[in-house]
Structures
1.
Amino acid sequence: MIYYIFKNLRITICSNKLVFVLLIMCEFFVSIILLLSYGTYQNTRIENENERYDLDSIDVSFKDETHTNQEITAFLNDLSDDLLGEIKAVCYFPELDVKGEAYPFAFRLEYNKKTKRFINYSVASENSSLYIGRNPTDKEFENGEGYIVIPYDYEDVDLESKLGKTVHLDGKTYKVIGISFLDDYKVSYYNAPDGLKNIDSLYFMPDNMISRSAYTELEKKLTKHFGDGYELPEIDVYDDNVPYYNTIMLICIGISFAGAFLLMVLFRYIVRTRIQTIGIFRLCGAKKSEIIFIFIGEIVITSIASALLGAGCFFGIIVPYISKYYVYIGRIYTAKNIAVMSLIYILSVIAFMYIMLMPLINKDSKLKGL
């Protein structure tokens, strides 16, 4: 049947060029209108709310006390995969007290969705200024291997000789594999010295504008672990809760139905030109369901191709242009809401095509032209 789907598609392109172009244009513009309606709806809703604290990072500060690394790791390990999936990186900077001297450490982490463990934030690792040596690999970091990158000491004339040596910190032993121009020490998140403390803030870098549910979870988990001893800024979020999500989905359903109805009208003409083809299929023993599958497969393939073209045009050309007027529009799309809109549209197309095809296939009088 796949063969006949593509054969019918080729016949349509050759024999009904104008109608085929109209089909492609219809599907192309429907995909753009769907994406634009979602983006402008969310953008307008955000702009109508009160002014929010809008930064590239969510800075959580602790009010009257600092916290230990054990407390921070317990909090981070309690965050859900959904929340961490919306966060590009988490950063915090503890200290280790050794005989009255403070050793600064740095954790710049990203969440590995496959292994469900933290690794070094790739952008920070790639941009880190190493004097000599290397950073731990992701696998070494996840496994908690005893490697350390130490800061550059301008007063140490024999600094390079420390590469490959071992250092002892808070009862743990680490092998020096790199020397950085930055002024902090780097070890695995999973093999950090127990005595790390004096953490007065956390920095979350969202991958994009985060959802309200992710922000709510972050607030609840902070309260669970730190009581009211923290300050979480109010930031711009997009709503994925039921009332707002249902509203925009109803809009998308309406647009999808309108687009699918227009496609049905255009495609009906193509189907009527193939009445004899349908008759041949029936005489050869093809079931009604198989014939419907061929025609619906044809329109679904053109819909997907046109939608991808429309999405590429929307995100590549339209969004950069209109973002000067809709400042949030480039930051509120996620794979989830794009997938939901696409599914609604495809299901609408299938439903309308089925409604249109059944009467035509059932009318035996139409086959008398054979």
2.
Amino acid sequence: MLRILLVFNSYNCLGDNMEFNVGDLVTRNSYDNDVVFKIIEINGNEVKLKGMNIRLIADANIDDLKKHDDKDIEHEKDFLDRLETKVDLDRNDYFYLPGKILHIDSDMDYLNRCLEYYKKINIWAMGINEKEEDIPRNIIKLLEEYKPNIVVITGHDAYNKRKGNTDDLSAYKSSLYFAEAVKNARKYESSHEKLIIIAGACASYYEELIKAGANFASSPKRINIHALDPAIVAAKMSLSDINKDINLKEILEKTKYGKDGIGGIITKGTMYVGYPR
């Protein structure tokens, strides 16, 4: 007998009396259904998930999943509503030149969300989709090509306590790559005010990234961060006066989890103000 095996990108399985397919929105019962995920891969009963709002890749058993029926997946709508979609600037007499952003992200979905956010507030931004391990090798070439005022280095990361303490770089999924990329960026431009660096993802080694030369980094409390958090900080720096020190606390409070998710140093902004318009 000839047996033919067909492999599909989508796999149907009955869990909780429901079919699950790649692309479905779900939550995990064992985590009190706190995070909304999209199914990106199914292997038998093992499912790979990606957070819709949180920069998180996770594995789960299909029996642990619950379909997310809420069509508005942004149930942190209060957070999104308070993000500035308009900037209050005096455009009658003055003109403004916001800082340019180079956003390097290993996740295309999150990158596109960040680029849409920049577009809404009229900031020039170039998005580059690059694997974490490739960023250190390519960062100087990208900086030379696009000459940004601000560079975002992000994607996915995780801390595994079974591999070491929080001060052990080998216990992190991508912090080593982020730190190397920051160090290489500082070889291109050593000044923290001429090049603003925002680095890290979920649970990254915050202290190591700051030590490497980042102006802002995640994650002081080793927590997950929102997909837009790096972009929020970049946008605030782009629209801050180049002649004035930033309000560090105010910028961090704009992010989803505040100082627990991202920290940084006081520096000046990157926006030039001109007159007359």
3.
Amino acid sequence: MKAFDRLAALCIVILIAGFVALDVLLMSEGSKEDNAYKVEINRAVQEISSDEKADISSFEYITGIHEDDGSSDFYSTGREYTVRRINGKIYRIDYERSEKKDMNTVTAANVIMGLLSAAVIGVLVYLRRSIVRPFNELRDYPLELSKGNLTMPLKEKSSKHFGRFVWGLDMLRQRLEKAREDELELAKKEKTMLLSLSHDIKTPLSAIKLSSQALSRGLYSDEKKRRETAASIGEKADEIENYLGQIISRAENEFLTYEINMTQVYLSEIIRRIQEYYSDKLSLTGTELIVEEYSDCMLSADPERLIEVIQNIFENAIKYGDGKRISVSVSEEENCRLITVENTGCILPESEIDDIFLSFRRGPNVGNKPGSGLGLYICRRLMSDMGGDVYAETSDGLMRVTVVCKKA
């Protein structure tokens, strides 16, 4: 805000300096024009000397030429004049300076400059009130969000310039606040689950320990009893394994949560947004992007989630491909549309295809490239929640990942 105020003050100083410079320039030009009447007087004297008359209408500053007739009021006039003796006669030449005309020019120039200055100051005031001040109020908000201060909502602004921006920031705050609440709730559930399962595991674990101790000490002399005890140990081990399966299943289901908003969207809208996003990005890396012809239709999906899935596939194609070509094609199968993203430079063995959709699993072709192993797992989860699917296949150095979407 202070920087803008200094800039506005500098603009006003420049305008004032422009006023002064313009007035000085016009006044100096006006002083030069003040001598124009003298030139006309000399021309009038020459005309009278040669013809004993002069055409008043041809002069701009001379208003009258009078010959001395001996009257007493010859020299009593309210106008400016000069007296000249021409051919033995005395003439009074009335004239007016150009100062009045010059002052009119200065006044007009000042009015124009005043209007221009008022417009500039008005724009500066508008910018300060509608843009700079609202933005200054929002300046520290992202920093507060990064610190985790999520409880203070943003005040709605009437400025049309920041209405959508403020709305977006407040939506981000609400999302972060909800994410933190969900994280705390998940941590509470995890702790409760672990306490509950650990208590449940203690019973079969104690039975296994007692049975194994009895067997190791030879307390059972009957072969049938030993077999029953061994079978019991196996049953308790299966029970523990079941509990561990529950832990793993609940962990996989709860560590990622999604919000799906099913609606209808045109296939062309999805392809257009993907093409617009990646055209410039791929052109910088020299990767050829090909979008094959397709027939448009209405899909049943969450548009934002579907774009997220295809973007995830594109990022994998960029990261693990050879950077030569990425193509998008669309095919039809029963009541679905299949969107296939194909990239060159695939070195993933076909035997590893199914594993790349598992959580925290990465193919042997990743090398030292960063990643979490969750991208395609998330894609499959999202498509499953939208009633679709995603699968991959390789052949001849090409990687194809196909997204199956239901038609509306």
